[in-house]
Each structure stands twice: as structure tokens, then as C-alpha cells.
Amino acid sequence: MVQVHLPRRNTVFLAYWTMVATALVLLIPWTARASDELLKEAVLPVGLANKAIQASLDFCSKDGYKVSVSVVDRAGVVRAVSRADGAGPHTIDSSRKKAYTAASLRRSTTELAELINKVPTLQALRDMNDQVLMLGGGFPIEISGEIVGGIGVSGAPGTQLDDACAQAGLAAIGAAPKVSATK
Questions:
Q1: CA distance 106 to 174
Q2: In sequence order, what DSSP letters do the residues of the chain get, joined into one string?
Q3: Which tens digit of pLDDT belongs to each residue from 1-45?
Q4: Domain 46-172, what fold?
Q5: What is the pLDDT of residues 85-118, one digit of tens each?
Q6: Distance CA 48, CA 169 (A)
Q7: Diameter of the chain by CA atoms?
Q8: Could you tell me if 71 and 149 are in contact, meaning their C-beta atoms sit under 8 angstroms apart?
Q9: d(Cα 151, Cα 59) in Å, to the nearest integer?
Q10: Torsion angle of C-alpha atoms 56, 60, 154, 161, degrees rounded to 10
């Protein structure tokens, strides 16, 4: 019988890599479970954001309204913004805040403005943070039953007109239609 003697160095090396491989195999189930816990959520593509903005701008411009339109994602982070030629500089910030408010609170800003006027205890919502604007013209963007962002329009002569321009943007991307609360 022939006996093979491995040098001690090779035996230690082989034992080391066997332990490493065993540890990795034992950890694989843990990494699979952790990935199962990650949330899956729809993301509003920038192409759809721009399409909604252009539709809103076109709708407003046909009536001569010079507006700004902002689209934010579900977290209120800006996806796209556009200001029509001649729109006031303040309209950029107010359209963004309307979009943020609608996405964050998951309601139209017209509905929220009317709600805080009817229920005085809810007026603190206006002061939740400096990004909230309770003024008509903002809507959540809902696609396939999921809120994926918000759209805000500012600069038309009346919040009901800002609402109409924002609705045109929603319609252009196939988002669920929203109905503003009636006055």
C-alpha cells in the first residue's frame, strides 16, 4: 500500500479553505431571507414625468396661462420641472410644493385646503414642514393603484385652473383621474 504524505502546509491550507467554504454555504440562507424583506415599489420614470409636464403646459398655454409644472416621486423628490416662458419666478417653488404636498399627503391640494378650512383642528397640517403648500393645483400621481408621485401646477389665474392643467398631465400618462373637492 502506498501512503501519500501531504506537507503540513498544504493540509492547513486545505483545512482553511474548507472552513471558508462551509461558512459561506451556511450564510446563504440568511442573505436570501434578507433580500425577501426588501420592499418593492414602483418608480415614476423621468420620461413619464416629462410627458405629464408637457401636457400640463400645453393645456394651460392654449388658454394663455403661463405656468410652472413640477413632478415629484413618492418621497417628494423632484423628477422634473418646467417653467413656461413668461411664468412668474414664484411659480417654480409653489408648483414643487403643491406636488410635494399631494404626494406626501396622498390627496389633492384643493381637497386638503378645503379640509383644513372646514376642520380647524387640522390647520396644523399647513405647518407640518416648510415644503407643504395647501393651495389648489397639486394631485397625487396614481398608476396601477399605487401612488408613485405628485404633480403641481402654479401660475394660472385661479386654483381651479391650476387643477385643470394638472389633470391634463395626469390624463396624458394614464394616471388615475382625480376629482377635486367641490366648493
A1: 18
A2: -------HHHHHHHHHHHHHHHHHHHHHHHHHHHHHTS-------HHHHHHHHHHHHHHHHTTT---EEEEEETTS-EEEEEE-TT--THHHHHHHHHHHHHHHHTS-HHHHHHHHHH-GGGGGGGGS-TT---SSSEEEEEETTEEEEEEEEE-SSSHHHHHHHHHHHHHHTTPPP--PPP-
A3: 666 555 556 677 777 878 888 877 777 666 556 677 788 888 999
A4: Beta-Lactamase (3.30.450)
A5: 999 999 999 999 999 999 999 999 999 999 999 9
A6: 10
A7: 100
A8: yes
A9: 14
A10: -110
Q: What is the pTM of this model?
A: 0.79
| Domains of the chain, residue spans | 46-172
Residue appearing with cell numbers 502546509: 9
